[in-house]
Each structure stands twice: as structure tokens, then as C-alpha cells.
Amino acid sequence: MKKAIVVVICAALGVAAGFVAAPIAAEAYVQSAEPDLFGAFYIYLVDSFTFCNCDKKPPAEMLQTAVKSVSILKTLHEHDPKSQFLSQELALTQVRASLLEQKLGEEQQAKEDMKLAQDELSALGWKDVSPTRLTAIVAQIESEYGPAKQTTSFVTTTR
Amino acid sequence: MKVMRTAVFCLGCFAVFVFAAASTCFVRAGVHSIPELKSYDAWLHVGDLLRYSFLQYSQANPDEGRAALLEYVKFLQRTEDEHIRLPAKFVHASLGAAYLRLYRLESSEGNSTVAAQDMASAQREYSAAQLKTFDISTEALTKWIETDDLRHTNLYDGTAGTRAAASNQGVPRAASK
Predict the structure, then answer these.
(1) Residue A127: what are its φ and ψ, rounded to 5°?
(2) Contact list, A36 vs chain B (CB under 8 Å)
(3) Do B162 and A149 touch (CB under 8 A)?
(4) Would you tell me which of A32, B26, B30, B122 could form a disulfide with B99, CB atoms 3.0–4.6 Å apart?
């Protein structure tokens, strides 16, 4: 009888452990089997941190985030150099970094980043890559990432 | 001998634990966690691809715009093929809008045969979306996509202020709910 109880307890503990481990295993599975889908989550995070000043951070802190985002996107792009989607993401993040640098008086760096973004977008076939146009586009993206952005309420998630 | 028996029993208990954990993990991950994660990631990716394709379509040359729209269409079709859980109305209406943009693009390039195919695909998708108050005649859809494109182009050009529900871009209001 005692032995049976011990076996049942072991089984119950196993069920509990499996229940807790399932989301982690799922994450690992999706990461390895669907890298593009999994990457979408990271890109969304990068975009959110870059374009949404939800915490009302000072420009210097936002610039740090944007620079970090540029570095992450560059790494992702190195893994998938043919992705035009990543090229566009990278370029628009560079525009965002350039605008913040301008705000902080780092004119030279701002110019360099804007130039990199313009080159990237020209390579993507963009017809007008003037700073005015790119600033307007980034302003629109920032507005999309405000607190009410992408109400994903129809999909509940474990994240 | 007693030690041996205890060791075998412990090993048996461990095996029961591992089996119970593995089977629960397998079932929960397969039935719940993986589909949920995939649908969440797909939802985020649809949003990203929507913006990417619209910007390529509105800012880049026709070839780049076409390639981006087709990438967006391909991803939406993949969500259907792989049964990734996204609201069917949303997927159909998003596909409809993407085909309408392809229609506009091909029309402006003078590819009337391809444009007609795109319009037929758009109508098929809107029909599948079952939007009760949405007119899917060629004239109505052409007018609708022109207005919608103009609205969003103005937003990205900064000529209409900011703050748009860009996540609903190109998708009739009824479908995004």
C-alpha cells in the first residue's frame, strides 16, 4: 500500500513537472522548428522598445535603446542577409537613432546614421529617402507603438 | 538484497515520474502551448509584414512593392495552410486588401491580365471573410482601396497627422473585430 502511494505521488509530481515544463518546451520547439515565427517576437520587442517611449524615458536613454536595437537587427540581418524586411526594419531603426542623436546635439553621428538608413532604403527601391519623408514615417510608426498599439486581445498568450 | 530492492523501486518511481512528466509535457505542448505560441508569433509577424509591405508598396518601385506584397500574401496563406490560429475573417480580409494592392500595382503597370486575377482573388477572399455590409463589386473595391491607400499614405507622409490604427491597415473595420 505504501509503495502504491509512493508511485502515485511520483506520477503526480511528474504530471506537475510536465505541466510546468510544457510552455518552455514549446518555446524551444518553436525556436528551432519555426525560427522565422520566433524571430517575429524578438523583432516586435525590439520595435516596441525602440519606437514606443511608453515609460517617458529621457532621449539619452531612448538613444541607448535604439543603438542596441540597431545592433540586434544587424545581427539578425547577418543571419538572413536576403531579408528585405529586416533591411527595412534596420533602416527605420537607424532613422529613429539619428533623430534622437539630433535631439541630443550629436550632429555628426546623426548625419552618419541618417546616411546609412538612406543608403539601405535606396537599395530597397525607395524613391524618396529625404530626411523629411523618413522623419514623417518614423513619427507615424512611433504613434502606432503608443500604449494602445496592436491590441492583441483576440489571442491569449502564455508570454 | 533489501538494498537492491529499494534501489529497483526508486528507479521504478523515477521512471514513473519521467514518463508522467514527458507525456504531460508532450500533450500540453502539442495541444495548447505550441499552437498558442505560433498564433501569437504569427499575429506579431502579420503586423510587421503589413507595415513592411505597405511601405514597400507605397514608397518603393513597383517590383519591390510587388515582392513585399507577395511575401505578405504568402505568409497569410501559410497561416491558413498550417492551421495557425488567427481569426479567419481577419486573414481573409487581409488577403483581400493585399490582392487589391497588387491589383492597383499591376493595373498601373499595364498588366491587365494579372490585375484581373488579383481582383478576382480579392473578391474571393472578401467573399470568404463574409463581411455583411461590404460591397465586393470591382468598382466598390477599387474605390475602397484607393481611399484606404490614400489615407495611409497621408499618415506615413505626415500630411494627416499621426496616430492611426495602422494595425487595421487595409482591413475593413468589421474584419478586425
Answers:
(1) -85, -35
(2) 45
(3) no
(4) B122
CB contacts under 8 A, A 41-100 vs B, are 41, 43-44, 47, 84-85, 88-89
Residue A110 · residue A98 · CB < 8 Å: yes
- With an 8 Å Cβ cutoff, is A4 touching chain B? no
Distance CA A143, CA A137 (A): 10
Query: Using CB atoms, which residue from A3, A125, A137 is nearest to B156?
Result: A137
Local confidence band at A156 (pLDDT 50, 70, 90 cut-offs): very low
Is ipTM strictly over 0.85?
no
pLDDT of residue B164: 45
**Alpha-helical regions (H) of B60-111:** 62-81, 88-108
pTM assigned to the model: 0.81
Cβ neighbors of B108 (< 8 A, separation 6 or more) are: B62
B56 touches chain A (CB under 8 A): yes
Q: Which residues of B fall within a CB distance of 8 Å from A152?
A: 40, 43-44
Alpha-carbon span A20 to A13, nearest angstrom: 11
Q: What is the pLDDT along chain B (177 residues), one digit of tens a residue?
A: 788 989 999 999 999 999 999 999 999 999 999 999 999 999 999 999 999 999 999 999 999 999 999 999 999 999 999 989 899 999 999 999 999 999 999 999 999 999 999 999 999 999 998 887 778 899 999 999 999 999 888 888 877 654 444 444 555 444 443
Domains of chain A by residue range = 1-33, 35-144
Longest Cα–Cα distance in chain A: 80
Q: Does any CB of chain A come closer than 8 Å to the CB of residue B11?
A: no
Question: Hey, what long-range contacts does B18-23 have (CB within 8 A, 24 or more apart)?
Answer: B18/A14, B19/A14, B20/A10, B20/A11, B20/A12, B20/A13, B20/A14, B20/A15, B20/A17, B20/A18, B21/A14, B21/A15, B21/A17, B21/A18, B21/A21, B22/A14, B22/A18, B23/A18
